């Protein structure tokens, strides 16, 4: 297709002008793109966060074995060996009381230092801990029982307590898996749905302009000449729609993030905005522009056969 | 078919049967020379519109040959249609201006299509708007113009690329007598400057007063073809 630069500029100009010429029809198209992409974006954010949560839960399915304060190094080694012999166990990590205190302090965030003031090497209320990971998350309860039973064969009763989240962890684990899968299906479904919604809106606008296309052809315009401004208009509408959506989503997410991050008791940690904004913006912008172009070119095709 | 140099339009035994079985044209043969002004008259449904549509390649003949300005348009590939239409200016009863575009933009569109430089467009469009007497309304959109003014813009668009021929399908059909006369004077002037004009009309007064070539079509056939003819029907 040989098109002069002059004509290309003309198409760009016409594409922009058309958005204003069509007034509320353009607004309708942009709105439908914003609505669809917004829903899509919310689900993407949800899935990304649930994924993150699921990963965290996955790595947290572990059994904490708290040892009695009197347990010496030799006894501890014995326990590690005995637990390590269980076929369900994949990994044992020893967390000393000092290390435990440090981690606890860090998990409290900025306030940690102040709260734990006065506890140090000689005044440490935490026990030594063995962190046991299992091969199959579902065997956690069974393994925990087996570890508790080890106390029976030792008169010193070296184990103070065995903890593994008592079902809550397993339940959360199941839920996150489900949300992850359902969320993915939803995102795909919504993507397809928004394509139809948007192409329909664009089809209506072009239907209204069928007469115009007929007139353009009478004056001797080629199909390419007619198509270009529509193409550019579609891309612009998609771009404006997705940028609006990105703005709304990022602003809303930022507010949500700020509201949650101040409250650690909820236990929900959203991914920070800086981790996701690029991905989200690029994704929505690409989808928006593609849908805009796709909608306008597909819909115009059948009217060009005038 | 041999093409005479001066024949802008030639039809050779042209038949047109529509899909619903209507025989709109039945063996029409006609030649229209450069510079001619031709009225096409006849009762409604006699085939006038089909005759016009075949010239600007809105319809394809079922049988026969048509050449317009040297193009054998019966055998034209769809891809080539736009290039033929650029040599033909069309004017309709319902004006067919692009809505939401100003008068200037409407006329300029026909020049943008053939990739004319912007500067040339500006000069030529203003020239043509001046010719039709609407230079001062260049910035108005069609719905801000009267019927007569809209038709003048349509005429400006039709002539802006200096076509060899103008096809006018009842251009005064929606206008009052006085406005119609204004339009006819304008078309006469354009014809005087060298453009062939083929105009279908039901307007008895105009045909009888202007005395140009008249082609009467009835039941798909040319039943009368006279120079300086009359309308010949009561309505």
TrEMBL record, chain A:
The chain crosses the membrane at residues 27-48, 182-207, 228-253, 276-295. It is found in: Cell membrane. It is a multi-pass membrane protein. GO terms for biological process: cell division. InterPro entries: ABC3_permease_C, FtsX, FtsX_ECD, FtsX_firmicutes-type. The keyword Transmembrane helix applies. Residues 61-151 form the FtsX extracellular domain. Residues 185-291 form the ABC3 transporter permease C-terminal domain. Keywords: Cell cycle, Cell division, Cell membrane, Membrane, Transmembrane, Transmembrane helix. The keyword Zinc does not apply. Part of the ABC transporter FtsEX involved in asymmetric cellular division facilitating the initiation of sporulation. Belongs to the ABC-4 integral membrane protein family. FtsX subfamily. This is Cell division protein FtsX. It comes from Paenibacillus macquariensis.
UniProtKB/TrEMBL annotation, chain B:
The keyword Cell cycle applies. The keyword Membrane applies. It is a peripheral membrane protein. GO terms for biological process: cell division. It is found in: Cell membrane. InterPro entries: AAA+_ATPase, ABC_transporter-like_ATP-bd, ABC_transporter-like_CS, ABC_transpr_LolD-like, Cell_div_FtsE, P-loop_NTPase. It comes from the Bacteria. GO terms for molecular function: ATP binding. Residues 9-235 form the ABC transporter domain. Keywords: ATP-binding, Cell cycle, Cell division, Cell membrane, Membrane, Nucleotide-binding. Belongs to the ABC transporter superfamily. NCBIfam families: FtsE (TIGR02673). Part of the ABC transporter FtsEX involved in cellular division. Homodimer. Forms a membrane-associated complex with FtsX. This is Cell division ATP-binding protein FtsE.
